[in-house]
# Entry
Amino acid sequence: MKILMTTMGMDIGGAETHILELSRELVARGHEVTVASCGGAYVEELTKNSIRHVELPLNTKRISHAVKSYRGLKKLIREERFDVVHAHARIPAFICALLQKKMGFRFVTTTHGVYDPSLLWRLLSRWGQYSLAVSDDVRDYLIKYYDIPKNRITVTINGIDTEKFSPDADCSSVLDVMGGEKGRRILYLGRLDREVSHVAFMLISSAPRIAEMYPGATVTVVGDGTSFEEIRARAEEANRAAGREVVRLTGARTDVREFMAAADVFVGVSRSALEAMAAGTPVILAGSQGYLGIFEKEKLTDALDTNFTCRGKGDASAGAILDDIGTLLSADEDTIDRYRAFGIWTVRNYYSVRQMADDALEVYGRVMHDPVPFRGRGDVLLSGYYGFDNMGDDSILETVITSLTAEKPDIRITALTKKPKFDSRRFGIRCVARMNLLSVIRAMKRSRVLISGGGSLFQDSTSKKSLLYYAHIVNLARRMGMKTYILANGVGVIFSERNKKITAKTVNRADRVTVRDEESLQELVNIGVAREKIRCTADPAFMLTPCTGERLRAAIRDYRIPEGKDFFVVSLRRFEGLQRKAYDEAALLREIVGSCAYAAEKYDLTPVFIAMQPNLDLDVSELACDMLRTGYGVEGTVACPADGAELLGILSGDRGRTGARFVIGMRLHLLIYAIDALVPQIGLSLDPKIDAIMRRVYQSHLFRLPDVTEADLTSSMDEIFENYEETKTAVKNASADFKDLAKSDIDEIIKMLGE
# Structure
């Protein structure tokens, strides 16, 4: 794979070292990497590792420099035909995003920190088709301020080469530079730009006091930046006050590992702190965005949560830093050894370069499977219940996109959605406002095939207007000369005689018609659709691929699903209005919650409530979780997965971690994902589609609402565990059949495009 990394510069700094180490690892794995930047101390290291560097003024907002960078990158990308362009800062990302619109290359960004979220910067900031974030809070920042879809962000790490950064590194070449006595060498290393060098100033201001309290101690500051001359003046002033050279400035250096190994105390944050830890040096975590103090076991969670930036963890002060330095310089050898050992263990377990490269390659793989960005005419126009934050329907759209792209990589796809701007970023395709008639007509003029579905589009039990909308879209497409494919629809219940006639007329005129179950097929036949026109297949969501790796681990952290403990999943939705008959909603919820408490106690399982459509599911899920805690003393958790792939990953498990033991579902697509993940199901039926899927998978644990009791549910749980392997085998066989049937729809669409 040919990869272009773009960044502002390659001088000393955490982001720059991240790029260097990532590029080195990718080259070691056989990939070809080019880095474009304004240059810097690490360019020589890049060249030594067979990484080409192209110098462009990407470090400034000056219009003339931006134009030069735009032209230089355009020429470079056109000539080299990179597989992926990967930007690591806002200015390069902005320029690359402008080029991507014209050139259509695969584009990824990494965000290394949180920046000014003012309106101007938000308007000027651009992000790739996928984004990497170096911590959970950076990911949350991207979602909050830039509305980036969660499923397009992967949390990565600042990987550290533990062979390079090691206690065994030869540090003799820098001992004279640092000076001082063994056990008294204090190090600060990082960019000395005005906005991030507060701690360097604090450390220098404390230097005379350090010299007084600890004879033979020195403070070495490694780095360069916009504040360097001011820091030099402060250092000279501190040295005069101390009466000797306590503070030593080195400027930018590339022999960082030697300094880390030689230091006895490191003060700083982020990647530099991790490098010091890998070298066996005790660390004081202090930065411009927060302060945690001496790194030890009790600080691990807070440090991991902020990727060792201390963001939001209080403010650093010269006094606190001086106190921590005193603690470390006065500690006995056993205490120091404990700090060293825990730092090394942390880096090796959480921050390997290999994991960082794995994260990047996983994202590159995802972007390579995105549909090709295009302008002008398209191939397929998708219509369905898309963009309403319903995980089931949105996963249908995602699966159809990925499945079609896998079969025909150059396919051009457009979708009609409620939120076209957001959904375009989320799914990586062109999206059009579904209720804007002129936009819909323009999209139809540019497309060849309309795919209507899947989902329950032809029904009037939840809305009388929706059936008319979907029928109108199909009929309009036909009148505009498009081929029409009604895909894996669930049909019914249709109450209105008028709507039955409209549905029959629309479906009879379509070019291809498939339904997801026999009940839907029979419903169409009953209202007058020719039997030979209909084929029974399966919901496209059966082809969904689960998320894995760091994205799955981040989801498990977010939703507080206990690691090392088994769990089960429950999907509830708002009860009101789901049945025509009146019933006691609170009583029904008590029956379900009671059965969840039974499973938690008898089988030692954690209940995980999944809100698949938050506006309908979240409140009742949180209520059930509260009832469990207050009524039974059982701790559960509520999760709102970003998409079906994330939920499927949770159900399936990853890297030896057990997935869900069983599910209780009021949502059709939870049952579908459970079948995909080979997890036994208990269905709570609200309409015929739940009944149909349970019958097709030969599961007998099906209850009509509201007529279900705690005893019914607990009895089903016991039966599942008594016959667990047999149940999983039945689910596995059904899952394979469903995948084949769903794939047949994709094959038929590809065939239609070739006609």
Remarks:
- The longest strand covers residues 449-458.
- The domain at 373-543 is CATH 3.40.50.2000 (Rossmann fold).
